UniProtKB/TrEMBL annotation:
EC code: 2.7.13.3
Enzyme class, first EC level, given as a word: transferase
PANTHER family from the UniProt entry: SENSOR HISTIDINE KINASE RCSC (PTHR43711:SF26), TWO-COMPONENT HISTIDINE KINASE (PTHR43711)
Keyword terms of this UniProt record: Kinase, Membrane, Phosphoprotein, Transferase, Transmembrane, Transmembrane helix, Two-component regulatory system
Residue ranges crossing the lipid bilayer per the database entry: 20-44, 50-70, 166-193
Pfam families: HATPase_c (PF02518), HisKA (PF00512)
Family matches, as SUPFAM superfamilies: ATPase domain of HSP90 chaperone/DNA topoisomerase II/histidine kinase, Homodimeric domain of signal transducing histidine kinase
Name of the featured protein: histidine kinase
Length: 445
C-alpha cells in the first residue's frame, strides 16, 4: 500500500474517528452560516441566484453531513462517507465562490479556513487530498467561466468599488463577512482545542497511574528477587555439602544428579540477578563504584565462571589477553556482569563440539573485550530486537533454548551506565561475536 493509501486508511482507526466526529458540528455551522449570509445578501439585492445556493448546495451538504453523523454513530462506511462529506464541503464552498464573484469572490478565504480545520481533525494525507480537490474544483470553475460555459457573476463589493458607493451599509456587510469567517474558525478550533486539552489531561492522569504502577512493580520485583536469592543460595550450599560428602558418601549417579541441581540453581540465580539488575537500572537505583580493575584477573574469573556453567558439555573455551597487565578504570561488578551474561549467552547457543573465545585487545586508552562463539547465530532481521527485555529469537513454548530473554537487555543497560559501546556481528549457522569497548585503559608491565 502506498504512503497516501496508508494515510487514508489511518482515518479508519478509533483515534481519528473521534476527531472526525468534531467535523460534523463544524459542517453544520459552515453550511447554515453561508446559507444565512446568502439570504441576507440576496434580500438586499447584492447577490443573484440566491435560491440556487440555498435550495441546492446547502441541502446537499446538510444531507452528507447528517450521513456522516449517522455513519459515525453506527460505525458503518465511515471512510467512504467521510470522503463524500468532504467532497460536498468543497462543492458547497466552490459553488458559493462561483455565485459571489468567482476569482474576485471574498468567499475564497473559506477554503483556507476549512483546510486548516481539516489539518487539525485529520492527518497529512487527508489534508493534501482535500487541498488538491479544492484546487481542481476552483480551476475547473475558472476554466468554465473563461470558456463561457458558466456565467460570470461580479462580486457585489467589486460593483460597489467601481461605482464609488462605498457607504456604511457595505462597510457593515463586509465586516459581517469577515466576522463570519473568523467565527467559524474560532468556534470550531476552540471546540477542538478543548477536546485536545481534555485528552491531554486524561493522558497525564493515565501516565501518573502508570508511573505509580511501575514503581509498585519495581518494588515487588526487588522484594521477590531478594526473597528468591535466599533459598537458591540455600540449595547451592546444601548441594556443595552433599557433594563434599559431609552427610555420607555419594556415588557417581548421585554426583551427576547433584551437578544437575547445582547447574539449575546457578542458572536460576543468574536469572534472578539479571532481573534485579534490570529493575535497578530502570529505576535509577544502580550506582557505580569506579576502581582500577586488572582485566587479566577479570578474564580468569570469567573463565572459571564459563567452565562452571559449561559443565561436561563438549565446548572449548579459550581466553586471549595481552601479556602485559591491562588495567581498567571502571566498575568491576557491572563489567563482570556484562561479560558473564555474554559468555553465558554464547555457551547456551553453542552446540557440543563448538568453540567460545574471549579476547582482550587494547587500542590506545580503549579496551575491546569480545566474546565469540560458533553457535546458531542471529538472523539479521532480528538483531535489533535482542536488546529488548523478554525478547528471544525463538519465543515459542517449544523452543530449544531456555532463558527469560533478560541477559542481553541487562548487557545493553549496564553498558550504557558504564558509557561502553556494545556491538554484535552474527551469521546464521556460523556464530556470533559481541564486542564491548570501554575507555579508561592503562598498561602496567
Amino acid at each position: 500500500m502506498s504512503w497516501l493509501g496508508k494515510q487514508i486508511e489511518e482515518l479508519n482507526t478509533p483515534y481519528y474517528r473521534e476527531k472526525l466526529a468534531w467535523g460534523v458540528p463544524s459542517g453544520y455551522i459552515l453550511t447554515i452560516g453561508l446559507a444565512v449570509l446568502a439570504l441576507l445578501f440576496g434580500h438586499v439585492g447584492l447577490l443573484e441566484n440566491v435560491w440556487s445556493m440555498v435550495l441546492i448546495l446547502a441541502p446537499i451538504k446538510l444531507f452528507t453531513n447528517t450521513l456522516m453523523w449517522w455513519s459515525l454513530r453506527k460505525d458503518r462506511f465511515v471512510l467512504s462517507v467521510a470522503v463524500l462529506n468532504q467532497t460536498a464541503d468543497v462543492g458547497l464552498i466552490t459553488g458559493m465562490i462561483y455565485f459571489t464573484g468567482g476569482p474576485t469572490s471574498p468567499v475564497i478565504s473559506v477554503y483556507y479556513v476549512v483546510l486548516a480545520l481539516i489539518a487539525m481533525l485529520t492527518n497529512v494525507g487527508a489534508t493534501i487530498l482535500t487541498g488538491a480537490l479544492m484546487l481542481v474544483a476552483y480551476s475547473t470553475m475558472l476554466v468554465l467561466i473563461h470558456s463561457g460555459v458558466l456565467k460570470f457573476y461580479p462580486t457585489f463589493l467589486q460593483t460597489v468599488y467601481e461605482e464609488g458607493e462605498f457607504t456604511w451599509f457595505f462597510v457593515v456587510i463586509d465586516i459581517l463577512k469577515v466576522g463570519f469567517l473568523l467565527a467559524i474558525m474560532v468556534v470550531a478550533s476552540s471546540a477542538i482545542l478543548k477536546k485536545v486539552q481534555e485528552q491531554q489531561e486524561a493522558l497525564q492522569l493515565k501516565n501518573r497511574e502508570l508511573e505509580e504502577a511501575n514503581q509498585l512493580k519495581s518494588q515487588f520485583v526487588a522484594n521477590i528477587t531478594h526473597e528468591l536469592r535466599t533459598p537458591i543460595h540455600g540449595v547451592l550450599g546444601l548441594t556443595e555439602m552433599l557433594d563434599d560428602e559431609i552427610y555420607g558418601s555419594v556415588n557417581q549417579r548421585q554426583k551427576k544428579a547433584l551437578d544437575g541441581i547445582k547447574t539449575s540453581a546457578e542458572g536460576l540465580l543468574h536469572m534472578v540477578d539479571d532481573l534485579l539488575s534490570l529493575e535497578r537500572v530502570n529505576s535509577g537505583h544502580l550506582s557505580m563504584r569506579i576502581s582500577v580493575v586488572p582485566l587479566q584477573k577479570l578474564i580468569e574469573e570469567l573463565m572459571a565462571f564459563g567452565l562452571g556453567i559449561r559443565g561436561k558439555r563438549d565446548i572449548s573455551i579459550e581466553a586471549h589477553c595481552p601479556p602485559s597487565l591491562v588495567l581498567m578504570a571502571t566498575d568491576k561488578s557491572l563489567l563482570h556482569h556484562i561479560l558473564t551474561n555474554l559468555l553465558a549467552n554464547a555457551l547456551k547457543f553453542t552446540p557440543d563440539g563448538g568453540r567460545v573465545v574471549i579476547r582482550v585487545e587494547r587500542e590506545g586508552t580503549f579496551a575491546k573485550i569480545s566474546v565469540s562463539d560458533t553457535g546458531i547465530g542471529i538472523p539479521e532481521e532480528k538483531i535489533h530486537t535482542i536488546w529488548e527485555p523478554f525478547r528471544q529469537i525463538d519465543g515459542t513454548a517449544s523452543r530449544s533454548y531456555g532463558g527469560a530473554g533478560l541477559g542481553l537487555a541487562v548487557v545493553a543497560r549496564l553498558a550504557k551506565l558504564l558509557k561502553a559501546d556494545v556491538s554484535v556481528a552474527s551469521k546464521v549457522g556460523v556464530g556470533t561475536t559481541f564486542c564491548v569497548t570501554l575507555d579508561g585503559c592503562t598498561v602496567s608491565d
